[in-house]
Design brief:
Number of domains of chain B: 1
Distance between the termini of chain B: 16 Å
CATH superfamily of one domain in chain A: YVTN repeat-like/Quinoprotein amine dehydrogenase
Structural class of chain B: alpha+beta
Strand content of chain A: 25-35%
CATH architecture of chain B: 2-Layer Sandwich
CATH class of chain B: Alpha Beta
Shape of chain A: elongated
CATH class of one domain in chain A: Mainly Beta
Radius of gyration of chain B: 15 Å
Helix content of chain A: 10-25%
Oligomer: heterodimer
Distance between the termini of chain A: 158 Å
Helix content of chain B: 40-55%
Order of helices and strands of chain B: HHEHHEEEE
Strand content of chain B: 25-35%
Number of strands of chain B: 5
CATH architecture of one domain in chain A: 7 Propeller
Amino acid sequence: MKSQRKVAVAPAANLGAKNTSTQSLASNAGNDPNMAGNEDWLPPKVLLKPPGQLQLTEPELEEELTRILNANNPHAPQNIARYNNKERVFKASPNVDHFVVHFEFDGYWIYKEKEEEAPEAPPAAETTTESTGTETEGGEGAPPASAAPPAEEEKKQKGPLRNQFNFSERAAQTINNPYRERSTNTEPPPARVFSDTVNQWSIYDAYMEDLQAKEKSDDDKQNILPTENNHNEDAYYKNPELKKAMIIIERMANQNTFDDVAQDYKYWEDASDELGDRKSGSLLPLWKFVCEKEKRKQVTAVCWNPKNTDLFAVGYGSYDFSKQGPGMIACFTLKNPSYPEYLYLTESGVMSLDYHPQHPSFLAVGLYDGSVLVYNMQKKVDGPLFKCNAKNGKHTDPVWQVCWQKDDLDDNMNFFSVSSDGRVAQWTLLQNELIYTDVIRLKFNESGTELVGEDEPLFSLAGGCCFDFHKTIDHLFVVGTEEGRIHKCSKTYNSQYLLSFDAHQMSVYTVRYNPFHGNVFLSASADWTVKLWDHCKDKPLVSFDLNSSVGDVAWAPYSSTVFAAVTAEGKAFVFDLNENKYEPICEQQIVRKAKLTHCAFNPFEPILLVGDDKGTVVSLKLSPNLRKVNNIDCAMIYQQS
Amino acid sequence: MADSGSSANLAAASADKGGAAAASDDKDTRRTFNYPLVKFCDMQDELKTEVVDMVVTAVEKHFANFETASKVIKELMDKRCGSSWHVVVGEGFGFDITHEMRNLMFMYFGGTVGILIWKQS
C-alpha cells in the first residue's frame, strides 16, 4: 500500500490514482499472464508531476478529507434585503436564487406543421393526407423540403392559420336554436256610433225640459221634507202603540234567548227529590238579573209585587259608609230578564223597599240619607210621588226598613219606617203631602244604669235596624237594633217596650213574624245566627248557626215551617222545621266571591230571589222537597221546640 | 261633421232673423240658461265633472271664437286622457260619429252652444 501511495501522485483524482495503482499492481505482481502480455506493448507509464505540486507528508496523505457536494451556488449572495411595500420596511429575503446558467444553446430545428406551412382552408381530410405525405417524404430533409414547395402547394397552404392547441371538442358544443316568428293582435277598444243634430231649437227644448224637471223635483222635495221631520227616533219611542209593540218584541226576543230557562221555570222538578226518603232539596238557578247601569252597587232590597206574580223591585245602594252615591230602583219582570221594566234614580243609596199590599203600584222607599219616598208606578214620571225633606221629619240616619200598614180610619195610606237614628216613624199619605208621626223612640237602655251623667243624651237612643209587624194584632211589632237587642213594642205605647230580648251579640239584620203562626218570629244577625222566638218568651226557641253573617231571612208564603236564609259566604239555606229542626234541608252555594244580602219568596210561585253585593239578583227555583205543604198544626212544633 | 267656425256664422245669421220682441224674450231665458246641460255622456262621473268644468271655462273664455275654444278643449283633453280626442263646438251642426265607449260627451252650454267631445283613434 505504501508503494501504491507513493505512485499515486494526484491526491485530488482518487479514481485515476486507483486505476493506475491496479495497473501498477498487476505489472508488479505479474500473476495474470494474459494481462501482462496485453499490456506489454504499451509504452511504460510515466507519472508526470505538475510543477509546484504540494509535497505532502505521510500522515497528511493518510488524512481523510470529506466533502459534501450540494447544488448551492457559492457565489449567490446570502444577504439580499428588499423593500416590502406592504409592511413598509426592508426585509431580508430568505429565498436566494441558486440557479446558474453555464451553457445555453438554441436549436435550429422547427416543427414540420408550423403555421407558415399549414394549408389554406382545405378540407380536413386533404390536409391529413398531405401532412402524412410530407412525413413519408423523409426525416432529414424536412427543412429544405418545406422551404421550397411548389407554387400551387403554397397556395393551398395559405389562409387562416390553424392553432393545433386551440380547438373545442364536439361534445362541448351546444346547439343554437333556430328562430321562429310569432305575433298577436289585441282587440280594438269597443266603439259605438252616435249621431245627433245640434241647432238652436233643440238646445232651447233641452234647457226647457231641464227647467221643468228641476221645478218638479223641487215640488217633490217640498212634499217630502215635512214627512222627514216626523221620522226621527223620538217619534218612535213616544208613540205609545209602537212602544207597546216594542216591549212585546223585546219580551219575545228574551223568551227565545232564555227558552231553556223558561222551560225549567215551568216544568223542571228535581227528580232526585223523589228518590228514597230523602228529605233534602235543591235550588235551581234560573234567570240572573243585572242592571247594566249600576254594576258596582249592592243589592240592598228585594221586594215582590203582591199582585203581579212576575214583577219585583230591586233597590241598589251601598252598605259601605265610605262608598255612598246615588241609588237606583229597578223593577224587573221574569218575562224580561235583560232590562228592567221601570227604572228610577234616587239621590242617595236605596236601603229598603216595600210594595203596598193592596195598591200594587205604590212603592215605599227608604234611602241612606234618611229620607223616605213614595213612588207610583202607574204615573209615567221619573220622580217620586211623595218625598220627605228635612222639614217634615226626615230621619237622620239610613232608613233600614219601610213597611206599609193598613189604611187608617180616614182611608189614608200609611207606612212605617225604622232608622238607626232610633226612631220608628209612621208616614201618612195625604192628598198632596206626607205627614209623619214618631211611633216610638228606641231608648238604649230602659233602666239607664249603664249610662252616667253627661253621656246620657248622646246615647239615649238605640239604632233600629229592622222591624216587623204582627200579622193579626195590628199594634204589635218587634224592632231589631244595632246592638243586638230585639224589642217588642206597641204602636199605642210610645215610651216603653212590652218586652226586650237579649237576642244577639251583633246587630240584628232582619226580624220576621211567621205569616201563619202569629206569635213566632225569626231574627237574623251578623253574629252568624238565626233565632226563632216566641214573642211571649224572652229565650229563643231554636238557634241556628250558619257559620257566616246572615244577611236576610224570609218565611215561605206557602208553609208555616219553611224559611230561607242567606249568608255573607254566598250560601242560601232553606229550613223546614217540620222535617228537620236542627239542620237545613238545603244548603247551596249560590254565588262565589260575593256576599248575599237579601232574599224574598215569590208569594205565588216556588221562586226565591237572592240578591248579592255585586248588584246581581238570582232567581232560584225550589225543588219539590222544599215546597212541601203540611197540614199539621204548626203550633205543635213550636211548642215542642 | 260640421266645422265649428262655419256653424257659428249660421247661428248668428239665424239669430238676426228673429224679431226684436222675441229676442228680448230669448235673452231673459238665455240668462237663466247660463249653465252647462249635459245631454249625453258615458264617461265616468269623476271625469265627467272635470270635463264639464273644463268646457265651461274654455267656452266662456273664447265665446266669440269657437275654433280656438275647441282647440283649447282638445289640447286639454289630450293632455288629460291621452291622444286622439275630437272636439266640435258650434251653434248648429249635425254629426254621425264612431267613438270609443266611455269616451263621449255631448252637452249644451249657455243656451246656444252645443259641444261634442269624443275619442276615436
